[in-house]
Amino acid sequence: MASQENQNVGGQNVPNDNHSESGAPVNNSLQRGASALGNQGAIPMVTVPSNSVEKPEKFNGLNFKRWQQKMLFYLTTLGLARFLTEDAPVVTGSEVDVQSLNAVEAWKHSDFLCRNYVLNGLHDALYDVYSKLATAKELWNALDHKYKSEDAGAKKFVVGRFLDFKMVDPKTVVNQVEKIKMIFHEIQKEEEMILSAVVTEVNLVGSNSNEWFVDTGATRHICSNRELFTTFEPSNGEKVWMGNSAHSAVEGVGKVVLKMTSGKELTLNQVLFVPEIRKNLISGSLLNKHGFRMVFESDKLVLSKSGMYVGKGYACDGLFKLNVMTIINNNNKIPSAYLLESSNVWHGRLGHVNFNSIRRLINMEHIPKFTIDVKHKCDVCVEAKLTKTSFKSVERKTEPLELIHSDVCDFKSIQTHGGNKYFITFIDDSTRYSYVYLLKNKHEAIDKFILYKNEVENQLNRRIKTVRSDRGGEYEAPIGDFCASVGIVHERTAPYSPQSNGVAERKNRTLKDMMNAMLVSSGLSQNMWGEAILTSNYLLNKVPRKKYDKTPYELWKGKRPSYQYLKVWGCLAKVLVPTPKKGKRMGF
Fold first, then answer.
1. From the candidates 215, 379, 428, 470, which is the catalytic residue?
2. InterPro entries per the record (predicted)?
3. Which one of 84, 241, 264, 315 has the fewest beta carbons within 10 angstroms of its own beta carbon?
4. Is 481 a catalytic residue?
5. Which phi and psi (to 5°) does residue 241 adopt?
6. pLDDT, tens digit (0-9, with 9 covering 90-100), for 452-494
């Protein structure tokens, strides 16, 4: 019947009874436009049932052009597409009547539906950003303006596929190589080169231009303040892409030197100058590539390199803000954070020994030459070591094994993986070469002493003459009786006077200081103290003592030690499993 027939207006079904599909009245001016269009009537309009059209997937910031086309088609099938471009009808004072007011209300209702469909097509994060816009046109234009580059979504989509590509076992290598070649060719088809710098949405919240944030998702360092660069070269045509498919121009590349609150200098090379970025970003992946270690714990960030503490930061605005004291704009500054043969690296390799010992090793030509900053203080050493005033030294023995200092140190509260709670030291007075053994209990002290005695007497072809220790129970009976049986003089210190056994006590303190520093710098658990103690003793034997131009190792073994294989304790190491062992372990 005529009263139930619908007219089609621009893809929208408008009933003759002046009500839309939703039941709201329709503006008469629109009907007059529809009648004029219908009179032209050369080509009949084709309608598509709305229930036969699939909703577009939610837009998450990627490939806007494709989503926009799908959403436009979907709204067209619903008869709501025109509200993306129409302004709200305005009723003047002379035209106020019931019909005009109904038309305005009908338009508002339809615009509300259109706006709702668009918002429901957005990801939750974007929904929260754009839900406050009043009309469908404002919403549509805002999205179009934000993602206006027609190719930005496509490029970001292709780059994302390339970066996320992973080889998987079920598929053949040939097929996967062909797939990644196809993705690479898609990138090459783009008219302009895409700079591989993908960062998070940092331009949503403003920030101080002198603040720096560590972003593990960024692939390049980015700075918005031209004054922070120590070196700078202009750049044209390059762009940096955001996580939301937007992009900003790169106006230059240079170097930035940051002064951390710890006193260390962090040099950032190949930093992009992007004035539109509102946060200065440090690429976490680049730091990792240059040997830096980042530990994230309890909303804090600890940055270190080669076992040396560099600086720290804290969580802020979803990223980690570094504690930067000043920005050094001086072209003559040495980028100490990126130097491989620096005093900090060798300080870590040698178990955080004092810098005077390192300087002496340089003078003895045991390690490469480098500059030592006399004003520098290692924060790890300050935290891990406590010192007291030294007692005056006494005259040393002149021959090995004339006097052996020994002491047992207690770690009852923390056991190693092997169940050890103590360690015992044996130090030769003339050379200061020392042995350290781990103990599960103090009763093992006599066994370790016999083991030590047999080894050193056989290696040096000498005999131990005197052993000096405190009055601990492990020395009173077992070791004392054994010494008496083999003709070794056992000297015991006076009660409550550890300085009488100062060599052993000082050795224990040095070992524990180095152990603490190594555990702090590496971030390993306290139950690794045994391995740290053994490593500390091994390193101390290769470090010269005060007033001596030779190391204990040279005095004991008669040859120069090697330092070429030393690495910072606690650094990453990978073990090559021999083929026979690997086959047995894997079961093939």
1. 215
2. GAG-pre-integrase_dom (IPR025724), Integrase_cat-core (IPR001584), PolX-like_BBD (IPR054722), RNaseH-like_sf (IPR012337), RNaseH_sf (IPR036397)
3. 315
4. no
5. -100, 135
6. 999 999 999 999 999 988 877 777 778 888 999 999 999 887 6
